[in-house]
Amino acid sequence: MSKVLIVGGGAAGMFAAVAAARNGHDVCVYEKNEKLGKKLFITGKGRCNLTNDCDEETFFSSVLSNPRFLYSSFYGCTNQDVIRFFEEAGVRTKTERGGRVFPVSDHSSDVIRGLEREMKRLGVGAILRTEVKSIEDRNGSFSRIVLADGTEIPGDACIIATGGISYRSTGSTGDGYRFAESFGHKIKPCIPSLVPFEAKEEWPAKLQGLSLKNVEISLYDGKKKLYGDFGEMLFTHYGVSGPLVLSASGHVGRTLEKKELALFIDLKPALDEKALDRRVLRDFEEAGKKQFKNALQKLFPSKLVPVMVELSGIDPEKQANMITREERVSFVRLIKRLGLTVSGLRGFDEAIVTKGGIDVRGIDPATMESKLVKGVYFVGEALDLDALTGGFNLQIAWSTAHAAGSSIV
Question: What integer pLDDT is reported at residue 1 of this predicted model?
Fold first, then answer.
């Protein structure tokens, strides 16, 4: 039996603790917060989207950074294994749109309690309100952890599950990067991911709180299209957010760090320009002598109407049946290509995950063990691994944590 010390009591830390304890080890988790699973508690808006019930191909295509690195750990603990684990731990699950898996109760606290019950059953220790200051090795092998008060705790292996730097209020303050650098690991620069966009224009603020469903967005760097998708988005006082935008940020975040991008919204993606022109012409004919500003209620939500009128350049007082063909064609193009200048990403406090982190080339993909220091393992968001929304990032945490906990001899 080895003494395994785990730094960080979030999703990956708790799951690694269970795996190591099931593997016959004496396990203790050190967590600087007052409770375990603080970030897990707020995931999925408090409902905890714990994985995605998809096929293997969909999972790997949803991982944005270093998907190949995850082959071994994912097959060692698949999404189906995770669902089975929680069901057996007393957490009944359900699958919703897009394969998203949630606890039936819609309470993330049930997921945390399920993990805590299994940890308790296996005799895992948990030391709360305790910060680890450093992790030390001797002759290239793990030796001990040193707490903030100077206490030294020796052990045979250490699993570092400290998370990234998103939602710092939950304790994710980048400690894992500091520990990794002390051993000589390289850190890929970190940026927020799955995060809203800031826009240069002021008009999105007028639409604050307006959610649009069934729209299509496209992001361009000059004439080069970087990303496009269909779904739901939200206007905010600083720009745009919502599922479409969060996913887009995972793809274009690195580019946005260097330059502004053009975002175009197709408000009517089901209609091509000719079909939409016929629809708009029909609406204007039916509106007759109504003013242009009062002839758009069938086309858009009421909050969007004055903004579209303003951006169109058409006189708001003009009668609908007096609008010229040129004006109408231009208006149709605006509907199909409503443009914004994306000036940057929102900060880490609004990011669901961190893009970047510990360079995976220094980590054994089968075990998560450091290639530089024996007995030291890195798991979860501390690694340079990130994915789209939908439960994929938590699956990365479960798979890497299981690989580490199960591989300690």
Answer: 72
Listing DSSP states for 375-404 in one string gives TEEE-GGGBS--B-SSSHHHHHHHHHHHHH
d(CA 405, CA 375): 11
Beta bridge partners, 220, equal 225, 262
CA atoms within 13 A on the CB side of 385: 31
When pLDDT is averaged across residues 39-51 and rounded to a whole number, the result is 92
Look up the pTM and report it. 0.93
pLDDT at 247: 95
Strand partners, 187: 358
Q: Across-strand partners of 339?
A: 264
Q: What are the distances in angstroms from CA 79 to CA 76, 114, 116?
A: 10, 17, 20
Q: Could you report the per-residue pLDDT of 201-252, keeping only the tens digit for each?
A: 999 999 999 999 999 999 999 999 999 999 999 999 999 999 999 999 999 9
Contact status, residue 290 vs residue 319, Cβ threshold 8 Å = yes
Distance set, CA 362 to CA 4, 40, 371 (Å): 21, 27, 5
Q: CA-CA distance, 138 to 145, in Å (whole number)? A: 12
- Supply the pLDDT for residue 158: 98
Helix, strand, coil shares, percent, the chain, to 5: 40, 25, 35
Nearest-angstrom CA–CA distance, 37 and 31 = 9
Phi–psi pair at 234, nearest 5 degrees = -140, 140
DSSP summary character for residue 183: T
27 CA to centre of own chain? 29
Closest among 234, 351, 332 to 274, alpha carbons compared: 332
The tokens describing 231, both together, are 């779904």
Q: Are 362 and 185 in contact (CB under 8 A)?
A: yes
DSSP string, 249-288: HHHHHHHHTTS-EEEEEES-TTS-HHHHHHHHHHHHHHHT
Angular region, 310: left φ>0, alpha ψ -120 to 50, beta rest: alpha
pLDDT of residue 167: 72
The pLDDT tens digits for 99-152 are: 999 999 999 999 999 999 999 999 999 999 999 999 999 999 999 999 999 999
| Terminal Cα-to-Cα distance of the chain (whole angstroms) | 8
Q: How far apart are CA 203 and CA 238, in angstroms?
A: 10
Find, among 339, 290, 285, the residue nearest to 312 by Cα. 339
